[in-house]
Amino acid sequence: MKKLLALLFVAVLALAGCVQKKSDVAGGGDAESTSGEKPSIEILGQAANENDLNILRDQLTKNGFEVVLNIQPDYGSYSAQKDAGNYDIAVSSWTTVTGNPDYAVRGLFKTGGDYSIVSDSKLDELIDKASTLTGDEAKDAYAELEQLLVFDQAYIAPLYISKKAQGIYSAKVNPETVLLPKSRAQVWENISFNDESLNATETLVLHQAISSLTSLDPIKGNDGSINTLNTNMYVRLVNLTEDDQVVSDGSLSYNHAMAEGNSEYYFILRDDINFAKVENGAAVDTGDLVSAEDVVFSLNRAKDQNSVPDHRTYSLHENIDTVEVVTDLSELQNAKVAGSEETVLDALSKELPQAVSEVVESEDQVDNAAGKYQVVKITTPNPFPQVLNYLAHQSGGIVSEKQVTSINTYDVASYDPNTDIAYGDQATVTEGDSYNNQLYASGPYILVQKNDYEATFVKNPAYRVGSEFEPKITNISVRFIDDNDSALSALRNGEIDVLQTVPETKLDIVKSDDNLTLNEADSNGVTYLQFNTKGREVSDSADLRKAVLYSINQEEFITYYQGNKLPAASTVTPLIDTGLKLEADSEKVTEFLNAYNESK
Protein backbone atom coordinates (compact mmCIF):
# COMPACT_ATOMS: atom_id res chain seq x y z
CA MET A 1 0.00 0.00 0.00
CA LYS A 2 2.81 2.39 0.89
CA LYS A 3 4.46 1.52 -2.42
CA LEU A 4 1.25 2.30 -4.30
CA LEU A 5 0.83 5.64 -2.53
CA ALA A 6 4.44 6.50 -3.28
CA LEU A 7 3.94 5.74 -6.97
CA LEU A 8 0.78 7.84 -7.04
CA PHE A 9 2.64 10.73 -5.37
CA VAL A 10 5.43 10.54 -7.95
CA ALA A 11 2.89 10.45 -10.75
CA VAL A 12 1.16 13.57 -9.44
CA LEU A 13 4.49 15.37 -9.19
CA ALA A 14 5.34 14.29 -12.76
CA LEU A 15 2.03 15.58 -14.08
CA ALA A 16 2.51 18.85 -12.25
CA GLY A 17 5.95 19.16 -13.76
CA CYS A 18 4.51 18.72 -17.28
CA VAL A 19 2.16 21.69 -17.02
CA GLN A 20 3.47 24.52 -19.24
CA LYS A 21 2.93 28.17 -18.48
CA LYS A 22 2.60 30.62 -21.37
CA SER A 23 6.06 31.90 -20.61
CA ASP A 24 7.46 28.38 -21.08
CA VAL A 25 6.22 28.03 -24.67
CA ALA A 26 8.87 28.88 -27.28
CA GLY A 27 7.84 31.94 -29.22
CA GLY A 28 4.61 32.19 -27.22
CA GLY A 29 3.09 35.52 -26.36
CA ASP A 30 0.79 36.46 -23.53
CA ALA A 31 -2.55 36.26 -25.29
CA GLU A 32 -4.38 37.47 -22.19
CA SER A 33 -2.54 40.81 -22.28
CA THR A 34 -3.89 41.50 -25.75
CA SER A 35 -6.94 43.77 -25.82
CA GLY A 36 -9.94 42.88 -27.96
CA GLU A 37 -10.93 39.67 -29.70
CA LYS A 38 -8.41 37.26 -31.13
CA PRO A 39 -7.90 38.09 -34.81
CA SER A 40 -8.61 35.25 -37.24
CA ILE A 41 -5.92 34.44 -39.78
CA GLU A 42 -6.48 32.14 -42.77
CA ILE A 43 -3.27 30.51 -44.03
CA LEU A 44 -3.24 29.17 -47.58
CA GLY A 45 -0.81 26.47 -48.60
CA GLN A 46 -0.34 23.19 -50.43
CA ALA A 47 -0.43 19.69 -49.00
CA ALA A 48 3.30 19.50 -49.73
CA ASN A 49 3.81 22.35 -47.21
CA GLU A 50 1.67 20.76 -44.50
CA ASN A 51 4.53 20.57 -41.99
CA ASP A 52 5.25 24.28 -42.41
CA LEU A 53 1.56 25.06 -42.08
CA ASN A 54 1.31 23.12 -38.84
CA ILE A 55 4.34 24.91 -37.36
CA LEU A 56 2.88 28.27 -38.40
CA ARG A 57 -0.50 27.43 -36.91
CA ASP A 58 1.10 26.56 -33.58
CA GLN A 59 3.25 29.70 -33.51
CA LEU A 60 0.35 32.01 -34.34
CA THR A 61 -2.03 30.28 -31.96
CA LYS A 62 0.46 30.69 -29.10
CA ASN A 63 0.63 34.40 -29.92
CA GLY A 64 -3.09 35.08 -29.71
CA PHE A 65 -4.45 34.33 -33.19
CA GLU A 66 -7.35 32.14 -34.29
CA VAL A 67 -5.87 30.17 -37.19
CA VAL A 68 -7.71 28.61 -40.12
CA LEU A 69 -5.70 26.40 -42.49
CA ASN A 70 -6.66 26.34 -46.16
CA ILE A 71 -4.67 23.37 -47.47
CA GLN A 72 -4.93 22.63 -51.19
CA PRO A 73 -3.84 19.31 -52.74
CA ASP A 74 -1.75 20.73 -55.59
CA TYR A 75 -0.33 23.86 -57.14
CA GLY A 76 -3.28 24.38 -59.50
CA SER A 77 -5.81 24.36 -56.68
CA TYR A 78 -3.55 26.55 -54.56
CA SER A 79 -3.24 29.09 -57.39
CA ALA A 80 -7.00 29.15 -57.91
CA GLN A 81 -7.57 29.91 -54.22
CA LYS A 82 -4.85 32.56 -54.29
CA ASP A 83 -6.27 34.21 -57.39
CA ALA A 84 -9.71 34.24 -55.74
CA GLY A 85 -8.24 35.99 -52.69
CA ASN A 86 -9.26 33.24 -50.28
CA TYR A 87 -6.46 33.79 -47.78
CA ASP A 88 -4.90 36.22 -45.33
CA ILE A 89 -1.39 34.86 -45.75
CA ALA A 90 -0.15 32.39 -48.34
CA VAL A 91 2.91 30.20 -47.99
CA SER A 92 5.01 31.17 -51.02
CA SER A 93 8.49 30.45 -52.27
CA TRP A 94 10.89 32.08 -54.68
CA THR A 95 14.16 30.96 -56.18
CA THR A 96 16.33 33.60 -57.79
CA VAL A 97 17.26 31.62 -60.88
CA THR A 98 19.32 34.46 -62.36
CA GLY A 99 21.72 34.84 -59.43
CA ASN A 100 21.19 38.60 -59.04
CA PRO A 101 19.33 40.51 -56.31
CA ASP A 102 17.19 42.58 -58.68
CA TYR A 103 15.42 39.40 -59.79
CA ALA A 104 14.73 38.61 -56.13
CA VAL A 105 12.56 41.73 -55.79
CA ARG A 106 11.52 43.33 -59.09
CA GLY A 107 8.92 40.88 -60.36
CA LEU A 108 7.73 40.06 -56.84
CA PHE A 109 7.31 43.44 -55.18
CA LYS A 110 7.44 46.28 -57.71
CA THR A 111 4.14 47.82 -58.71
CA GLY A 112 2.93 45.97 -61.81
CA GLY A 113 5.61 43.27 -61.54
CA ASP A 114 4.87 39.90 -63.07
CA TYR A 115 4.05 38.36 -59.67
CA SER A 116 3.57 41.46 -57.54
CA ILE A 117 0.45 42.26 -55.55
CA VAL A 118 2.27 45.08 -53.76
CA SER A 119 1.94 48.72 -54.79
CA ASP A 120 4.26 51.08 -52.92
CA SER A 121 5.96 53.97 -54.71
CA LYS A 122 8.74 54.18 -52.12
CA LEU A 123 9.49 50.49 -52.56
CA ASP A 124 9.47 50.92 -56.35
CA GLU A 125 12.01 53.73 -56.00
CA LEU A 126 14.31 51.60 -53.83
CA ILE A 127 14.13 48.65 -56.24
CA ASP A 128 15.17 50.84 -59.18
CA LYS A 129 17.89 52.56 -57.16
CA ALA A 130 19.46 49.31 -55.90
CA SER A 131 19.51 47.79 -59.39
CA THR A 132 22.06 50.33 -60.65
CA LEU A 133 24.57 49.85 -57.82
CA THR A 134 27.35 47.40 -57.04
CA GLY A 135 29.49 46.51 -54.01
CA ASP A 136 28.86 48.18 -50.65
CA GLU A 137 26.51 50.73 -52.21
CA ALA A 138 24.29 47.91 -53.44
CA LYS A 139 24.41 46.24 -50.02
CA ASP A 140 23.26 49.44 -48.30
CA ALA A 141 20.50 49.99 -50.85
CA TYR A 142 19.15 46.46 -50.51
CA ALA A 143 19.25 46.78 -46.71
CA GLU A 144 17.09 49.91 -46.97
CA LEU A 145 14.75 48.08 -49.35
CA GLU A 146 14.54 45.04 -47.05
CA GLN A 147 13.82 47.24 -44.02
CA LEU A 148 10.79 48.76 -45.77
CA LEU A 149 9.56 45.52 -47.33
CA VAL A 150 9.73 43.34 -44.21
CA PHE A 151 10.17 45.30 -41.01
CA ASP A 152 8.42 48.62 -41.72
CA GLN A 153 5.45 47.46 -43.79
CA ALA A 154 5.55 43.65 -43.39
CA TYR A 155 4.42 42.99 -46.94
CA ILE A 156 6.03 39.57 -46.51
CA ALA A 157 7.21 37.48 -43.56
CA PRO A 158 10.30 35.30 -44.19
CA LEU A 159 10.45 31.70 -42.99
CA TYR A 160 13.75 30.18 -44.19
CA ILE A 161 16.29 29.62 -46.97
CA SER A 162 16.39 26.12 -48.41
CA LYS A 163 19.46 24.16 -49.36
CA LYS A 164 19.55 22.12 -52.56
CA ALA A 165 19.70 18.35 -52.37
CA GLN A 166 19.64 16.17 -55.48
CA GLY A 167 19.32 12.41 -55.63
CA ILE A 168 21.01 10.47 -58.47
CA TYR A 169 20.48 6.83 -59.39
CA SER A 170 24.23 6.38 -59.64
CA ALA A 171 23.92 2.67 -60.32
CA LYS A 172 23.05 3.84 -63.85
CA VAL A 173 23.92 7.56 -64.18
CA ASN A 174 27.39 9.03 -63.74
CA PRO A 175 26.93 11.40 -60.77
CA GLU A 176 29.94 13.52 -61.81
CA THR A 177 28.04 14.58 -64.93
CA VAL A 178 24.94 15.77 -63.05
CA LEU A 179 25.46 19.40 -62.09
CA LEU A 180 23.70 21.19 -59.25
CA PRO A 181 23.92 24.94 -59.97
CA LYS A 182 22.85 27.40 -57.32
CA SER A 183 20.50 29.25 -59.69
CA ARG A 184 20.47 27.82 -63.20
CA ALA A 185 18.01 25.06 -64.04
CA GLN A 186 19.20 21.48 -64.47
CA VAL A 187 21.82 21.16 -67.26
CA TRP A 188 20.68 18.23 -69.39
CA GLU A 189 23.35 18.19 -72.11
CA ASN A 190 26.07 17.38 -69.59
CA ILE A 191 24.51 14.18 -68.19
CA SER A 192 25.84 10.76 -69.17
CA PHE A 193 25.17 7.17 -68.23
CA ASN A 194 27.98 5.24 -66.54
CA ASP A 195 28.11 3.09 -69.64
CA GLU A 196 28.49 5.76 -72.31
CA SER A 197 27.51 3.29 -75.03
CA LEU A 198 23.95 3.55 -73.69
CA ASN A 199 23.74 7.30 -74.28
CA ALA A 200 22.39 6.88 -77.81
CA THR A 201 19.82 4.20 -77.01
CA GLU A 202 18.68 4.38 -73.37
CA THR A 203 16.26 7.01 -72.08
CA LEU A 204 17.30 9.29 -69.21
CA VAL A 205 14.30 9.65 -66.90
CA LEU A 206 14.05 12.94 -65.01
CA HIS A 207 11.29 14.30 -62.81
CA GLN A 208 9.13 17.32 -62.13
CA ALA A 209 6.00 17.73 -60.05
CA ILE A 210 3.86 19.90 -62.36
CA SER A 211 2.33 18.29 -65.45
CA SER A 212 0.39 21.27 -66.82
CA LEU A 213 2.87 23.44 -68.74
CA THR A 214 2.31 27.21 -68.71
CA SER A 215 3.86 27.79 -72.15
CA LEU A 216 6.75 26.55 -74.24
CA ASP A 217 7.23 30.07 -75.52
CA PRO A 218 10.04 31.15 -73.17
CA ILE A 219 8.68 34.66 -72.48
CA LYS A 220 5.17 33.46 -71.58
CA GLY A 221 6.02 31.41 -68.51
CA ASN A 222 8.18 31.79 -65.43
CA ASP A 223 7.31 28.98 -63.04
CA GLY A 224 8.24 25.46 -62.02
CA SER A 225 6.25 23.88 -64.83
CA ILE A 226 8.50 25.17 -67.62
CA ASN A 227 11.69 26.77 -66.26
CA THR A 228 13.83 23.66 -66.67
CA LEU A 229 12.14 22.59 -69.91
CA ASN A 230 12.55 25.94 -71.66
CA THR A 231 16.09 26.37 -70.35
CA ASN A 232 17.04 23.18 -72.17
CA MET A 233 15.04 23.95 -75.32
CA TYR A 234 16.32 27.44 -76.07
CA VAL A 235 19.92 28.65 -76.14
CA ARG A 236 20.76 32.05 -74.60
CA LEU A 237 23.43 34.71 -75.16
CA VAL A 238 25.07 33.86 -71.83
CA ASN A 239 24.82 31.26 -69.04
CA LEU A 240 25.36 31.04 -65.31
CA THR A 241 28.01 28.85 -63.71
CA GLU A 242 27.20 26.68 -60.73
CA ASP A 243 28.08 29.60 -58.43
CA ASP A 244 26.17 32.26 -60.41
CA GLN A 245 28.96 33.80 -62.51
CA VAL A 246 27.85 35.04 -65.95
CA VAL A 247 29.78 33.25 -68.72
CA SER A 248 29.57 32.60 -72.44
CA ASP A 249 30.29 28.87 -71.99
CA GLY A 250 27.55 26.70 -73.46
CA SER A 251 25.72 29.68 -74.94
CA LEU A 252 25.15 31.17 -78.41
CA SER A 253 28.09 33.53 -77.86
CA TYR A 254 31.79 32.80 -78.12
CA ASN A 255 32.42 35.78 -75.84
CA HIS A 256 30.68 38.87 -74.48
CA ALA A 257 31.88 42.25 -73.23
CA MET A 258 30.51 45.22 -71.30
CA ALA A 259 31.73 48.58 -72.60
CA GLU A 260 32.66 51.67 -70.62
CA GLY A 261 29.65 53.22 -68.91
CA ASN A 262 27.99 49.84 -68.23
CA SER A 263 25.19 50.54 -70.72
CA GLU A 264 26.50 48.79 -73.86
CA TYR A 265 26.92 45.02 -74.12
CA TYR A 266 28.40 43.12 -77.05
CA PHE A 267 28.05 39.44 -78.00
CA ILE A 268 29.90 37.64 -80.81
CA LEU A 269 27.81 34.75 -82.11
CA ARG A 270 28.81 31.24 -83.09
CA ASP A 271 27.59 29.46 -86.23
CA ASP A 272 27.37 25.85 -85.05
CA ILE A 273 23.75 25.86 -83.81
CA ASN A 274 20.70 25.38 -86.02
CA PHE A 275 17.04 25.22 -85.05
CA ALA A 276 15.54 21.74 -84.69
CA LYS A 277 11.94 20.76 -85.38
CA VAL A 278 9.93 17.55 -84.94
CA GLU A 279 8.92 15.34 -87.87
CA ASN A 280 7.32 11.93 -87.38
CA GLY A 281 8.34 11.90 -83.74
CA ALA A 282 12.00 12.63 -84.46
CA ALA A 283 14.11 15.77 -84.19
CA VAL A 284 15.44 17.03 -87.50
CA ASP A 285 17.84 19.80 -88.46
CA THR A 286 15.93 22.64 -90.13
CA GLY A 287 19.15 23.98 -91.66
CA ASP A 288 18.13 27.38 -90.24
CA LEU A 289 21.01 29.02 -88.35
CA VAL A 290 20.27 30.48 -84.93
CA SER A 291 21.34 33.94 -86.00
CA ALA A 292 21.62 37.56 -84.93
CA GLU A 293 18.30 38.23 -86.64
CA ASP A 294 16.67 35.70 -84.32
CA VAL A 295 18.40 37.27 -81.31
CA VAL A 296 17.13 40.75 -82.21
CA PHE A 297 13.61 39.40 -82.75
CA SER A 298 13.62 37.36 -79.51
CA LEU A 299 14.90 40.11 -77.24
CA ASN A 300 12.73 42.82 -78.78
CA ARG A 301 9.64 40.73 -78.06
CA ALA A 302 11.00 39.89 -74.59
CA LYS A 303 11.24 43.59 -73.70
CA ASP A 304 7.88 44.52 -75.26
CA GLN A 305 5.09 44.14 -72.72
CA ASN A 306 2.52 43.86 -75.53
CA SER A 307 4.36 41.45 -77.83
CA VAL A 308 2.33 38.44 -76.67
CA PRO A 309 -0.81 37.96 -74.59
CA ASP A 310 -0.08 37.24 -70.93
CA HIS A 311 3.60 38.22 -71.15
CA ARG A 312 4.95 36.90 -67.82
CA THR A 313 8.62 37.86 -68.05
CA TYR A 314 8.44 41.44 -69.30
CA SER A 315 9.74 42.98 -66.08
CA LEU A 316 12.97 40.98 -66.39
CA HIS A 317 13.83 42.61 -69.71
CA GLU A 318 12.29 46.07 -69.43
CA ASN A 319 15.76 47.54 -68.89
CA ILE A 320 16.78 46.67 -72.46
CA ASP A 321 16.60 49.76 -74.65
CA THR A 322 17.85 48.60 -78.07
CA VAL A 323 19.02 45.35 -79.65
CA GLU A 324 20.93 45.63 -82.92
CA VAL A 325 23.42 43.93 -85.21
CA VAL A 326 26.84 45.62 -85.38
CA THR A 327 28.17 45.98 -88.90
CA ASP A 328 31.01 48.45 -88.35
CA LEU A 329 34.19 46.72 -87.19
CA SER A 330 35.69 50.04 -86.12
CA GLU A 331 33.03 50.39 -83.41
CA LEU A 332 34.45 47.29 -81.74
CA GLN A 333 38.01 48.49 -82.26
CA ASN A 334 37.33 51.88 -80.66
CA ALA A 335 35.08 50.83 -77.73
CA LYS A 336 36.83 49.96 -74.44
CA VAL A 337 35.81 47.29 -71.95
CA ALA A 338 34.45 48.71 -68.70
CA GLY A 339 37.23 49.25 -66.17
CA SER A 340 39.94 48.29 -68.67
CA GLU A 341 42.07 49.56 -71.52
CA GLU A 342 41.23 46.43 -73.52
CA THR A 343 39.16 47.02 -76.65
CA VAL A 344 35.81 45.33 -77.06
CA LEU A 345 37.11 43.65 -80.21
CA ASP A 346 40.01 42.09 -78.32
CA ALA A 347 37.67 40.89 -75.58
CA LEU A 348 35.34 39.31 -78.13
CA SER A 349 38.18 37.74 -80.14
CA LYS A 350 39.49 35.30 -77.52
CA GLU A 351 39.67 31.65 -78.63
CA LEU A 352 37.69 32.09 -81.84
CA PRO A 353 38.04 29.52 -84.64
CA GLN A 354 39.40 32.32 -86.85
CA ALA A 355 40.35 35.94 -86.20
CA VAL A 356 37.61 38.47 -86.94
CA SER A 357 37.98 39.88 -90.43
CA GLU A 358 34.43 41.14 -90.89
CA VAL A 359 31.25 41.67 -88.86
CA VAL A 360 28.27 40.88 -91.10
CA GLU A 361 24.62 41.85 -91.03
CA SER A 362 22.87 38.81 -92.51
CA GLU A 363 23.04 35.16 -91.50
CA ASP A 364 23.65 34.34 -95.17
CA GLN A 365 27.02 36.07 -94.88
CA VAL A 366 28.15 34.22 -91.73
CA ASP A 367 31.22 31.99 -92.01
CA ASN A 368 33.17 31.77 -88.76
CA ALA A 369 35.89 29.63 -90.33
CA ALA A 370 36.57 32.51 -92.73
CA GLY A 371 36.50 35.14 -89.97
CA LYS A 372 32.97 36.43 -90.73
CA TYR A 373 30.88 36.83 -87.59
CA GLN A 374 27.66 38.38 -86.39
CA VAL A 375 27.86 40.67 -83.35
CA VAL A 376 24.83 41.77 -81.36
CA LYS A 377 24.83 44.95 -79.28
CA ILE A 378 22.38 45.54 -76.44
CA THR A 379 22.02 48.95 -74.80
CA THR A 380 20.32 49.85 -71.53
CA PRO A 381 18.92 53.34 -70.81
CA ASN A 382 20.91 53.47 -67.56
CA PRO A 383 23.94 51.56 -66.28
CA PHE A 384 22.57 48.11 -65.49
CA PRO A 385 25.13 45.28 -65.27
CA GLN A 386 22.42 42.92 -63.97
CA VAL A 387 20.98 42.82 -67.49
CA LEU A 388 23.45 39.99 -68.16
CA ASN A 389 21.87 37.84 -65.45
CA TYR A 390 18.47 38.31 -67.04
CA LEU A 391 19.83 37.29 -70.44
CA ALA A 392 20.90 34.02 -68.79
CA HIS A 393 17.31 33.38 -67.65
CA GLN A 394 15.14 30.94 -69.61
CA SER A 395 13.03 33.89 -70.83
CA GLY A 396 16.14 35.11 -72.67
CA GLY A 397 15.96 31.98 -74.83
CA ILE A 398 16.31 32.56 -78.57
CA VAL A 399 13.28 31.59 -80.66
CA SER A 400 12.94 31.37 -84.43
CA GLU A 401 11.68 34.59 -85.97
CA LYS A 402 10.43 32.69 -89.00
CA GLN A 403 8.52 30.06 -87.03
CA VAL A 404 7.05 32.25 -84.30
CA THR A 405 5.76 34.88 -86.72
CA SER A 406 4.19 32.17 -88.89
CA ILE A 407 2.33 30.73 -85.89
CA ASN A 408 1.38 33.93 -84.02
CA THR A 409 -0.77 35.48 -86.73
CA TYR A 410 -3.50 36.64 -84.33
CA ASP A 411 -4.08 40.21 -83.13
CA VAL A 412 -2.61 40.44 -79.63
CA ALA A 413 -5.28 42.91 -78.52
CA SER A 414 -8.12 40.55 -79.43
CA TYR A 415 -6.39 37.24 -78.68
CA ASP A 416 -8.82 34.43 -77.76
CA PRO A 417 -7.11 31.41 -76.18
CA ASN A 418 -10.05 29.21 -77.18
CA THR A 419 -9.59 29.85 -80.88
CA ASP A 420 -6.08 31.30 -81.30
CA ILE A 421 -3.34 28.72 -80.74
CA ALA A 422 -0.18 30.62 -79.81
CA TYR A 423 3.36 29.42 -80.35
CA GLY A 424 4.34 27.24 -77.38
CA ASP A 425 0.82 26.20 -76.41
CA GLN A 426 1.11 22.81 -74.71
CA ALA A 427 -1.97 21.63 -76.64
CA THR A 428 0.19 21.39 -79.77
CA VAL A 429 2.50 18.83 -78.16
CA THR A 430 -0.09 16.85 -76.18
CA GLU A 431 -0.73 13.44 -77.66
CA GLY A 432 -4.09 12.97 -79.30
CA ASP A 433 -6.03 14.28 -82.30
CA SER A 434 -4.93 17.89 -81.71
CA TYR A 435 -1.21 17.04 -81.76
CA ASN A 436 0.57 19.44 -84.10
CA ASN A 437 4.08 20.07 -82.81
CA GLN A 438 5.05 23.58 -83.95
CA LEU A 439 8.17 23.99 -81.83
CA TYR A 440 11.52 25.15 -83.17
CA ALA A 441 14.28 24.57 -80.59
CA SER A 442 17.55 26.47 -80.53
CA GLY A 443 18.82 24.61 -77.47
CA PRO A 444 20.22 21.12 -76.87
CA TYR A 445 16.82 19.37 -76.72
CA ILE A 446 13.36 19.62 -78.23
CA LEU A 447 10.04 18.46 -76.75
CA VAL A 448 8.41 15.81 -78.94
CA GLN A 449 5.16 15.25 -77.08
CA LYS A 450 3.59 15.02 -73.64
CA ASN A 451 0.71 13.46 -71.77
CA ASP A 452 -0.37 13.48 -68.13
CA TYR A 453 2.37 10.96 -67.34
CA GLU A 454 5.51 12.33 -69.01
CA ALA A 455 7.05 14.67 -71.55
CA THR A 456 9.51 13.19 -74.05
CA PHE A 457 12.51 15.06 -75.46
CA VAL A 458 15.20 14.24 -78.02
CA LYS A 459 18.53 15.94 -78.66
CA ASN A 460 18.83 18.69 -81.23
CA PRO A 461 20.91 17.07 -84.01
CA ALA A 462 22.35 20.48 -85.00
CA TYR A 463 23.48 21.71 -81.58
CA ARG A 464 27.25 22.14 -81.08
CA VAL A 465 28.00 18.87 -82.90
CA GLY A 466 31.42 17.49 -82.00
CA SER A 467 31.98 19.93 -79.13
CA GLU A 468 31.95 19.29 -75.39
CA PHE A 469 28.50 20.88 -75.29
CA GLU A 470 26.86 18.48 -77.73
CA PRO A 471 24.14 16.65 -75.75
CA LYS A 472 25.47 13.31 -74.55
CA ILE A 473 22.15 11.45 -74.11
CA THR A 474 19.76 11.29 -77.05
CA ASN A 475 16.43 10.58 -75.36
CA ILE A 476 15.03 12.16 -72.20
CA SER A 477 11.73 11.58 -70.43
CA VAL A 478 10.49 14.02 -67.80
CA ARG A 479 8.17 12.04 -65.54
CA PHE A 480 5.36 13.92 -63.80
CA ILE A 481 5.03 12.85 -60.15
CA ASP A 482 3.43 15.51 -57.95
CA ASP A 483 4.11 13.79 -54.61
CA ASN A 484 7.75 14.07 -53.58
CA ASP A 485 7.69 10.94 -51.41
CA SER A 486 6.42 8.97 -54.41
CA ALA A 487 9.16 10.53 -56.54
CA LEU A 488 11.78 9.48 -53.99
CA SER A 489 10.42 5.93 -54.06
CA ALA A 490 10.64 6.01 -57.86
CA LEU A 491 14.29 7.08 -57.60
CA ARG A 492 15.11 4.27 -55.18
CA ASN A 493 13.43 1.76 -57.51
CA GLY A 494 15.35 3.05 -60.53
CA GLU A 495 12.16 4.30 -62.20
CA ILE A 496 13.62 7.81 -62.42
CA ASP A 497 17.32 8.60 -62.70
CA VAL A 498 17.56 12.03 -61.06
CA LEU A 499 15.39 13.57 -58.35
CA GLN A 500 16.17 17.28 -58.40
CA THR A 501 14.76 17.97 -54.94
CA VAL A 502 15.24 15.54 -52.05
CA PRO A 503 13.28 16.64 -48.93
CA GLU A 504 15.51 17.67 -46.03
CA THR A 505 13.89 15.05 -43.84
CA LYS A 506 14.80 12.26 -46.31
CA LEU A 507 18.49 12.95 -46.93
CA ASP A 508 19.61 9.99 -44.80
CA ILE A 509 17.52 7.64 -46.94
CA VAL A 510 19.46 8.66 -50.05
CA LYS A 511 22.80 8.60 -48.25
CA SER A 512 22.23 5.05 -47.00
CA ASP A 513 21.17 3.60 -50.37
CA ASP A 514 24.10 2.03 -52.25
CA ASN A 515 22.39 2.67 -55.60
CA LEU A 516 22.08 6.40 -54.98
CA THR A 517 24.32 9.45 -54.67
CA LEU A 518 23.31 12.64 -52.89
CA ASN A 519 24.46 16.04 -54.19
CA GLU A 520 24.06 19.02 -51.87
CA ALA A 521 24.56 22.75 -52.47
CA ASP A 522 23.43 26.18 -51.32
CA SER A 523 20.41 27.64 -53.04
CA ASN A 524 18.71 30.95 -53.67
CA GLY A 525 15.34 29.52 -52.65
CA VAL A 526 13.43 31.37 -49.92
CA THR A 527 10.10 30.35 -48.39
CA TYR A 528 8.05 33.23 -47.04
CA LEU A 529 4.52 34.34 -46.21
CA GLN A 530 2.80 36.65 -48.66
CA PHE A 531 0.08 38.85 -47.19
CA ASN A 532 -3.11 39.41 -49.12
CA THR A 533 -3.16 43.06 -50.19
CA LYS A 534 -6.84 43.26 -51.08
CA GLY A 535 -10.08 42.79 -49.16
CA ARG A 536 -8.76 41.40 -45.87
CA GLU A 537 -7.96 42.86 -42.47
CA VAL A 538 -4.25 42.21 -43.07
CA SER A 539 -4.50 44.13 -46.33
CA ASP A 540 -5.15 47.41 -44.52
CA SER A 541 -3.33 46.96 -41.21
CA ALA A 542 0.46 46.99 -41.06
CA ASP A 543 0.11 46.44 -37.29
CA LEU A 544 -1.71 43.16 -37.87
CA ARG A 545 0.86 42.07 -40.44
CA LYS A 546 3.70 42.91 -38.03
CA ALA A 547 2.01 40.89 -35.28
CA VAL A 548 2.15 37.90 -37.60
CA LEU A 549 5.74 38.72 -38.57
CA TYR A 550 7.05 38.73 -34.99
CA SER A 551 5.15 35.52 -34.16
CA ILE A 552 7.45 33.60 -36.49
CA ASN A 553 10.27 31.67 -34.87
CA GLN A 554 12.58 30.60 -37.69
CA GLU A 555 14.63 28.39 -35.37
CA GLU A 556 11.67 26.04 -34.99
CA PHE A 557 11.62 25.49 -38.76
CA ILE A 558 15.38 24.98 -38.86
CA THR A 559 15.19 22.47 -36.00
CA TYR A 560 12.36 20.56 -37.67
CA TYR A 561 14.41 20.29 -40.87
CA GLN A 562 17.42 19.02 -38.91
CA GLY A 563 19.54 22.08 -39.62
CA ASN A 564 19.03 21.91 -43.38
CA LYS A 565 17.37 25.34 -43.55
CA LEU A 566 18.93 28.76 -42.97
CA PRO A 567 17.50 32.02 -41.56
CA ALA A 568 16.13 34.56 -44.04
CA ALA A 569 15.24 38.23 -43.86
CA SER A 570 13.80 38.39 -47.39
CA THR A 571 14.19 36.89 -50.86
CA VAL A 572 17.42 38.92 -51.16
CA THR A 573 19.18 37.16 -48.24
CA PRO A 574 20.87 34.33 -50.22
CA LEU A 575 22.44 36.93 -52.54
CA ILE A 576 23.33 39.85 -50.28
CA ASP A 577 23.72 39.74 -46.51
CA THR A 578 22.18 43.03 -45.42
CA GLY A 579 22.74 42.29 -41.75
CA LEU A 580 19.00 42.39 -41.00
CA LYS A 581 17.47 39.47 -39.08
CA LEU A 582 13.99 38.46 -37.99
CA GLU A 583 13.70 37.33 -34.37
CA ALA A 584 10.49 36.15 -32.73
CA ASP A 585 9.32 38.68 -30.15
CA SER A 586 6.12 38.06 -28.17
CA GLU A 587 6.19 41.55 -26.66
CA LYS A 588 6.15 43.12 -30.12
CA VAL A 589 3.31 40.79 -31.10
CA THR A 590 1.26 42.04 -28.14
CA GLU A 591 2.16 45.65 -28.93
CA PHE A 592 1.08 45.39 -32.57
CA LEU A 593 -2.08 43.41 -31.79
CA ASN A 594 -3.12 46.05 -29.27
CA ALA A 595 -2.43 48.81 -31.80
CA TYR A 596 -4.48 46.92 -34.38
CA ASN A 597 -7.42 46.45 -32.00
CA GLU A 598 -7.33 50.09 -30.92
CA SER A 599 -7.48 51.25 -34.54
CA LYS A 600 -10.62 49.23 -35.33
TrEMBL record:
A Pfam family assignment: SBP_bac_5
Q: Indicate yes or no for the key word Amino-acid biosynthesis.
A: no
Which keywords does UniProt give here? Signal, Transport
Cite the Solute-binding protein family domain residue spans from the record: 259-576
Domain of life of the organism encoding this protein: Bacteria
Please state the span of the N-terminal signal peptide per the UniProt entry: 1-21
Q: Respond yes or no to whether keyword Protein transport is given for this record.
A: no
Family named by the database record = Belongs to the bacterial solute-binding protein 5 family.
Q: What PANTHER family does UniProt report for this protein, alphabetically?
A: OLIGOPEPTIDE-BINDING PROTEIN APPA, PERIPLASMIC BINDING COMPONENT OF ABC TRANSPORTER
Name of the protein in question: ABC transporter substrate-binding protein
UniProt organism field: Ureibacillus aquaedulcis
